[in-house]
Design brief:
This protein is an alpha/beta fold and about 400 residues long. It has two domains: about 270 residues, Alpha-Beta Barrel (TIM Barrel); about 90 residues, Recoverin, domain 1, CATH 1.10.238. It has 15 helices and twelve strands. The strands form three sheets. The protein has an eight-stranded parallel beta barrel with strand order 2-3-4-5-6-7-8-9, surrounded by six helices. The protein has a two-stranded parallel sheet with strand order 1-10. The chain has a two-stranded parallel ribbon with strand order 11-12. α11 crosses α12 and α13 packs across α14. The protein is elongated, with a radius of gyration of 25 Å. The mean pLDDT is about 95.
Length: about 400
């Protein structure tokens, strides 16, 4: 039976931590409403104690959305949890996301503590947050590098203390997919009370493996994926929402699904990019400018014969208006003929060869040949110019 994967969007918290990407509360509310329309299950709206602006954003987002759970981040500290609880007051369904470092490097060099004290503080924070009346998600920061036996002890203890969700972040983007997957499998098999909580995966992209690690975690039993639009986030970013949603939609064999309305992905990607002043790289999977653009002659010819020759997703499924054929010096006659036909010029045989020669001259000069260039080429050929 197919399993529903919860989508936890942290564009407005982990994503917004990127220098230069800070948003005003009104802008965050606009994005939160769009995330609700997109179908995410949880919106991490901010880190309420970090600034009055973040506090206000969590308050306003809690008022603005009704379907998704609204979540506020805290450290395992009383004052953080108190402030988050207050900020979430208006949420229909609120969640406190509390936690602490779990790897020895964090325990020793960040907290200057011991495994025993960390476990005690994590349990205390979970109970304290739970007593506020909200759902509690516990993050074991840097779980990707933590000692696995200790991680399992910590997870079991916080579930015992009331955690509804246990987040196993690969905070530094260190893990390899098969090993991250094995970590999740180990927790599933060795934490006695694991059935009482949902396992969440939260991966960073330092080695370009965030999405692969997330999928490995889901395949091995995690029930929630933490993601951002366009994969924005600390350093090299977080797992991107659009990649996870489209992987699960494309690979039905995994038997995992989300509630994401994929046709809304592209518009939200564009909105986040312009509001955060963070351009989407052209070759970004799913939402980049070139994700559905075909430019080499062999690919264009194959695509024009049958789109599935070179496309595994239909652009309309992610809200991209259409695939595009980019005319460059690498394009062939089939693509040129196709574009000329769209412009109303039916050119074949020797005439096509003649136009193609002129096209290559222009294409060598310019990187991309546009419709205006083509019309100029055709109208400079007296016989062809009469055709349209
Ligand atoms: O990457 C991380 O570990 C985090 C936690 C605060 C959840 O963002
Ligand atoms: Zn993170």
């Amino acid at each position: 039976m197919s399993k529903k994967i919860q989508i936890f969007d942290t564009t407005l918290r982990d994503g917004e931590q990127v220098p230069g990407c800070q948003l005003k509360t009104e802008e965050k509310v606009i994005i939160a409403r769009e995330l609700e329309q997109l179908g995410v299950d949880v919106i991490e709206a901010g880190f309420p104690i970090s600034s009055p602006g973040d506090f206000l954003s969590v308050v306003e987002i809690s008022k603005a959305v009704s379907e998704p759970i609204v979540c506020g981040l805290t450290r395992s500290k009383k004052e953080d949890i108190d402030v988050a609880a207050e900020a979430l007051h208006h949420a229909k369904r609120g969640r406190i996301h509390t936690g602490i470092g779990s790897s020895d490097v964090h325990i020793k060099h960040k907290f200057r503590s011991t495994r025993e004290q960390i476990l005690e503080q994590g349990v205390w924070a979970t109970k304290y947050a739970k007593a506020k009346g909200y759902e509690v998600e516990f993050y074991a920061e840097d779980a990707g590098r933590a000692d696995l036996v200790f991680l399992a002890q910590l997870v079991e203890a916080v579930i015992g203390a009331g955690a509804d969700v246990v987040n196993i972040p690969d905070t530094t983007g260190y893990c390899l997919p098969h090993l991250y997957g094995k970590r999740i499998q180990y927790l599933v098999e060795n934490v006695k009370n694991i059935h009482r909580a949902v396992i969440s995966v939260h991966c960073h992209n330092d080695l370009g493996l965030a999405t692969a690690n997330t999928i490995a975690g889901l395949i091995n039993g995690a029930g929630q994926a933490e993601v951002t639009i366009n994969g924005i986030g600390e350093r090299a970013g977080n797992t991107s929402l659009e990649e996870v949603a489209m992987i699960l939609q494309t690979h039905k064999d995994l038997d995992l699904y989300t509630n994401i309305k994929s046709q809304k992905i592209y518009a939200l990607s564009q909105l986040v990019s312009s509001m955060m002043r963070m351009p989407v790289q052209a070759n970004k999977a799913v939402v980049g400018k070139n994700a559905f653009a075909h430019s080499s002659g062999i690919h264009q010819d194959g695509f024009l014969k049958h789109a599935e020759n070179y496309e595994i997703m239909n652009p309309a499924d992610v809200g991209v208006p259409s695939s595009s054929i980019v005319l460059t010096a690498r394009s062939g006659r089939a693509a040129l003929k196709h574009r000329l036909e769209l412009l109303g010029y039916h050119v074949a045989g020797e005439d096509l060869n003649t136009v193609y020669e002129s096209f290559l001259v222009v294409a060598d000069e310019k990187k991309e040949v546009n419709d205006g260039d083509l019309i100029m080429i055709v109208s400079s050929m007296p016989v062809l110019a009469k055709l349209p």
